[in-house]
Specification:
Layout lengths: L9 H12 L7 H6 L5 H28 L6 H9 L1 H35 L6 H17 L2 H29 L17 H19 L15 H38 L3 H10 L1 H25 L1 H9 L18 H17 L2 H29 L13 H20 L1 H12 L1 H23 L1
Length: 447
């Protein structure tokens, strides 16, 4: 029986964490955050709070990885803590929209920037997006190493692009008048400040999301019980540092009001400092960043589909690894094919809006499951979350904030998204009946 090959070390795992977080959000989200808070100090403060929440989440997933170092990550943790149905719904959501919709959306974003850089018409965006999905699907089909090396290269390039943005913004620019780090605006009550920071925290937590994806490839990481916790913490620390410095650069160059008005703060910052060449440079950086994120999602998500199939709750053939490449090859094909359908039909944007809050439902459930696993297995040695039980509780509350804020901001979208997620319930029970029907036939075939 073909099994996964352990070929990824600490560096590749850390780059996967960084690459899974840094997509296009840091180039856009700071403007939305600045529009919701009253001062540069609050803007930086809420980014720091979001970083702490992300770090707590990474610590919790580090302990979960130590306890269950299996391919599938969050799917496995949900199954072990809460049972097969919640785990199936997570995998269903990933395949239906969360992962495949993200692939489609990021592929189109990459295509837009790549075409603009090449001076080609926007009408080619969909063909280029589809070509990018096919190319990266093929790279990941032939082995985890080619896919991971591609992630490593692209992640280093995106970090270099952000380092250039930060360096120019902090060392070259003349700061806008007024201090960068200030307190709440005069006259702002503590209550209004807390509400503003809570509103700003929601897009920040989405921008910090993605560190959990590396757990999907646990069985392809060398000594995952030790390596994954270190990669998760190290990767999140790198991203938090980069995000805080990038926001400081934006504020230094644009000021809080200019940042709030900017539709593309990274591009505006570089254009102000370096002219059109700066805008071209950051556009290239965004293209690299989105392409790297696209590769990471295509690399890791099929491991969840393979784990579901191995449990007998999804297409059985997806459980089989390629005998030569030792990858979930058919799962990669299915994932990319559905992402291409979403890209060609143009339905991905609305679908992602519908179910984006669902990711945080599963995040919260997964971390809450740590309490159940600890109660069952109190004597497990090795990596443990510091500050337990309070630190997981903070993350669960943050996840609840994101979900409730998303529902409050658009109840209609939340209702439609919930219906899409719940469509997985009859699918789960249908597969259960299929397994029960097929089991006697399989047993006879082995006699």
């Amino acid at each position: 029986m073909t099994t996964y090959a352990r070929r990824l070390g600490l560096f590749s795992a850390t780059m996967a964490v960084v690459g899974g977080i840094i997509g296009g959000g840091i180039f856009r989200t700071p403007a939305a955050v600045a529009g919701r808070v009253s001062s540069p100090g609050l803007a930086l403060g809420v980014w720091a709070v979001g970083g702490v929440v992300a770090l707590i989440g990474a610590l919790c997933f580090g302990e979960l990885a130590h306890r269950r170092p299996r391919a599938g990550g969050g799917y496995v943790y949900l199954r072990e803590a809460w049972g097969p149905l919640p785990a199936f719904l997570y995998g269903w959501a990933l395949l239906l929209v969360i992962a495949t919709g993200a692939i489609a959306a990021v592929a189109v974003t990459f295509a837009d920037y790549a075409l603009a850089l090449a001076g080609l018409p926007h009408t080619l965006a969909v063909p280029v997006a589809v070509a990018a999905i096919v190319l990266l699907g093929a790279i990941n089909y032939v082995g985890v190493t080619p896919g991971a090396v591609t992630v490593n290269i692209l992640t280093v390039l995106k970090l270099l692009a952000l380092a250039a943005l930060i360096g120019v913004g902090l060392l070259w620019a003349v700061p806008v008048p007024g201090p960068v780090a200030t307190g709440p605006a005069p006259g702002g009550s503590p209550g209004s400040v807390i509400v503003a920071m809570g509103a700003a925290l929601v897009p920040i937590l989405f921008t910090y999301g993605g560190w959990q994806q590396t757990n999907f490839i646990a069985e392809e990481i060398v000594a995952p019980e030790r390596t994954l916790p270190r990669a998760l913490v190290g990767g999140v620390v790198i991203v938090v540092t980069v995000y805080l410095l990038a926001n400081l650069a934006y504020l230094r160059v644009l000021g809080i009001d200019g940042l709030a008005r900017s539709a593309a703060p990274a591009a505006d910052t570089m254009r102000l400092l370096l002219g059109p060449a700066g805008g071209t440079f950051i556009a290239a950086g965004i293209a690299v960043s989105t392409f790297g994120f696209l590769d990471l999602v295509i690399l890791v998500t099929p491991r969840v589909l393979q784990a579901m199939a191995a449990d007998g709750v999804f297409l059985p053939r997806l459980a089989v690894l390629h005998p030569r490449y030792r990858t979930p090859s058919l799962a990669i094909v299915v994932e990319c094919a559905w992402a291409i359908v979403l890209t060609l039909t143009g339905t991905f944007a609305q679908l992602v809006d519908y179910v984006s809050f669902g990711d945080w439902i599963f995040f919260g459930l997964t971390v809450a499951g740590l309490y159940r696993l600890r109660a069952r297995e109190p004597d497990v040695r090795g990596f443990r979350v510091p500050g337990y039980p309070w630190t997981p509780a903070i993350f669960v509350l943050a996840a609840a904030l994101v979900v409730l804020s998303s529902i409050g901001a658009n109840p209609r979208n939340a209702a439609i998204g919930s219906a899409l997620l719940l469509l997985g319930v009859p699918v789960y029970y249908w597969w259960g009946r299929q397994v029960a029907v097929d089991a006697p036939a399989r047993a006879e075939g082995t006699e």
